[in-house]
UniProtKB/TrEMBL annotation:
This is PQQ-binding-like beta-propeller repeat protein. Keywords: Signal. PROSITE patterns: TAT. InterPro entries: TAT_signal, WD40/YVTN_repeat-like_dom_sf. It comes from Georgenia subflava. The lineage of its organism: Bacteria, Bacillati, Actinomycetota, Actinomycetes, Micrococcales. Residues 1-31 form the signal peptide.
């Protein structure tokens, strides 16, 4: 075990980050040879945000109601907050992690949680009385991610894993782990886990199985779920016993519908609770009711009458407030001191760090900001809008983006999607695609920015039936329509090329344009869409192709004109762009910058930018970017986490940075790049 260095996060830390965001202090990060080396200027964090994706409520020994929260960022943070005041009672960074996985509270008050990336499967404990935070282990059971911890009556912690769909337990009395093994060869995740009448129930995905395991013997049985409930279900994402019922959340069915199993009869209820978001159901209140957020409204399931009823929540200010946030990942029934006593309230913590409360007796509400310090979010999408400014999307965020002003290089925070993937311009408007479900928003930058209204939602291709698409990485305007290249859903191979009319919302999906491959990069010219593919499909899928392809698609004829293997070792062909004299350029996973004839796909020139074995064959390659710089006669490109300048005349390669993910050229000619968290201004050196 490793005890972490702890302490409150000072306000000065946040102030320093904000100062860094505005500072323009130039420093050569890595330089090409020549009289004037390239300069890479760090403009500070691309996006600062509070991003609570895991939360659990509890009561301290003195009766203080608290919420424990993990805020994703670089690094992730763990905070204990007083629910009634929003004050931070304890806070610490979690070095080596950027993402939380679960938080659960044992009967003795001990908090267990998991965090990861780049750390693998980190398991932690926190003692609220002593404020001792301990890293128990990492890479638990040889796994990468731990999911949905739950504690049995005898104090043992159980959780699921990825990528081998295991169930594992941890005994805090002995410090021993027990590996119950992979639950199925058909799925990579045990994503949900709950304790049901002393058994450990585990739900898998993206092939759904529901198992009940005897924690002593390890013997198990499969719990059968009626076919009527399993329609368009690939995952069990939540399991919670409330009274004599088990509430089971299903995905993607209906946006996380919840099915109810009556333990006394073994029968599943005919009705479902629709569209239950990111939170488990609350504990029961004094009337035996457990609460969920269904379609954004607080809804009660009565465990005594097996009935679902509404509350007065819809008539308060809370729905409108929460609609502006990505989600609420933790809700609970609590008795709060002051005006709420002795009546109970439902309390929640939103992704933005707002603690909200709804009093079950009076209908009164409150909203207060929790003192959770922001962290740099992971930069994910990068593109240029019609105003010439660069726009940046965040990875699994609380709904954050940013804009880099082309004139001043100032970074402005914006509201955005949970995860902004591809960003481009079409028909004079800004296009932002997002995950999950392959979503498209389009915005008029002459109007005020109000995410959800402007940019407005235009399309969700959707997980599950009928199209099974999840991430849009390739995007290009074809003039009258927008072309979208996608990676499929979890467990699926076969991306799609979608043509979208953003004015009307009409679209057509062409799946398996290149059989079994994802489409990750697109360009367009004269009625032809050119695309690069990746052999990898959705997460937890097995590739069916050995090498990626470059292809040309005739938009009017709706057919492939040609398909080319530019490198037998390429796991992806990304970073498509136009070079001089109309050549089509791309970058491959195995470190080749290739020029091709757009009429035939024939390779006319290759430059090796990195050793073939250094690339990631199974990556999607969405961050590969290529820009032709006519002034220097060179390509500016990112691939496999490096920033290159490739001089076309002599094929020399200069590495400008060994830690850079993406690059674009904005409307003023600035090269704007991002690494994991920060944004940079790149100035090319003299060519000599």
């Amino acid at each position: 075990m490793r005890q972490l260095s702890l302490g409150r996060r000072a306000v000065a830390l946040v102030a320093a980050a904000v100062t860094a965001l505005a500072a323009l202090v130039a420093a050569p990060v890595a330089a090409a040879t020549g009289p004037e080396p390239a300069r890479v200027t760090d403009l500070g964090p691309a996006i600062m945000s509070v991003n609570v994706r895991n939360a659990a409520f509890a009561e301290l020994s003195d009766g203080t109601p608290v919420v424990y929260a993990i805020s994703n960022g670089n690094p992730a943070t763990f905070t204990m907050v007083d629910v009634t005041t929003g004050e931070s009672l304890f806070a610490a960074e979690l070095p080596g992690t950027t993402l939380g996985s679960f938080i659960t509270v044992a009967g003795d008050g001990t908090v267990y949680f998991s965090a990861r990336h780049p750390m693998l499967a980190g398991l932690f404990s926190f003692e609220p009385r002593t404020h001792e935070l301990v890293q128990i282990a990492e890479n638990v059971a040889g796994e990468r991610v731990l999911y949905d911890g739950a504690v049995t009556e005898d104090g043992k912690l159980f959780f699921g894993t990825y990528p081998h769909a295991k169930v594992v337990s941890y005994d805090p009395a002995t410090g021993a782990f027990r590996d119950y093994g992979s639950q199925t060869d058909e799925a990579a995740y045990v994503f949900s886990l709950g304790i049901v009448d002393g058994e450990v129930w585990a739900g898998t995905g993206p092939v759904p199985h529901l198992y009940a395991i005897d924690p002593a013997s390890g013997e198990r049985r499969e719990v059968e779920v009626p076919a009527r409930l399993m329609s368009n279900t690939q995952w069990f994402i939540g399991i919670a016993q409330r009274g004599d019922d088990v509430l089971v959340r299903l995905s993607p069915r209906g946006g996380y519908d919840t099915a109810v199993l009556h333990l006394a009869t073994g029968e599943w209820d005919e009705d479902i609770i629709p569209a239950v978001g990111g939170s488990d159901p609350t504990a029961t209140d004094v009337r035996g009711r457990s609460f969920v957020l269904s379609d954004g409204m607080l809804t009660a399931y009565n465990t005594r009458t097996d009935s679902v009823t509404t509350t007065g929540f819809a008539d308060t200010d809370l729905p409108a407030h929460l609609a502006q946030q990505v989600n609420t990942y933790g809700i609970e029934v609590m008795s709060l001191p002051g005006r709420d006593m002795p009546a109970q309230s439902v309390v929640g913590l939103s992704t933005d760090g707002d603690i909200w409360a709804y009093n079950l007796a009076t209908g009164s509400t409150s909203i207060r900001r929790a003192a959770i310090a922001p962290s740099p979010a992971e930069a994910h999408g990068l593109g240029v809008g019609p105003d010439g400014n660069a726009y940046i999307g965040a990875y699994l965020s609380s709904g954050s983006m940013s804009r880099v002003d082309a004139a001043t290089l100032g970074v402005e925070p914006l509201r955005g999607p949970k995860q902004g993937d591809a960003i481009t311009t079409h028909d004079g408007e800004l296009v932002v695609t997002s995950y999950p479900g392959a979503v498209v928003h389009v915005g008029d930058l002459d109007q005020p920015w109000e995410w959800g209204t402007n940019p407005r939602h235009v399309l969700t291709i959707g997980r599950g039936e009928p199209h099974f698409q999840d991430r849009i990485f390739g995007v290009v305007s074809t003039g009258d329509r927008l072309a979208l290249g996608t990676v499929p859903d979890y467990g699926e191979v076969g991306g799609a090329l979608t043509l979208l009319d953003t004015a009307t919302g009409a679209y057509e999906v062409h799946r398996d344009v290149v059989p079994g491959q994802s489409i990750v990069s697109l360009v367009h010219r004269d009625g032809i869409v050119y695309g690069g593919t990746a052999v990898s499909g959705g997460l937890s899928s097995t590739p069916t192709a050995s090498s990626a392809r470059l292809f040309a698609w005739d938009v009017a004829a709706e057919k492939v004109v040609w398909e080319s293997e530019v490198s037998p070792g390429a796991g992806y062909v990304g970073g498509l762009a136009w070079g001089p004299d109309g050549v089509l350029v791309a970058h491959t996973s195995d470190g080749l910058l290739v020029e091709t004839d757009p009429a035939t796909g024939e390779v006319s020139r290759t430059v090796r930018t990195a050793p073939a074995e250094s690339g990631a064959h199974t990556s999607w390659g969405y961050s590969a970017r290529t820009v032709w710089d006519a002034a220097s006669g060179s390509y500016v490109a990112t691939n496999n986490g490096r920033l290159y300048q490739v001089h076309r005349a002599d094929s020399t390669v200069a590495v400008l940075s060994t830690d850079m993910e993406q690059v674009v050229r904005d409307g003023a000619g600035n090269y704007i790049a991002v690494d994991d968290t920060n944004v940079f201004h790149v100035e090319l050196g003299a060519t000599g």
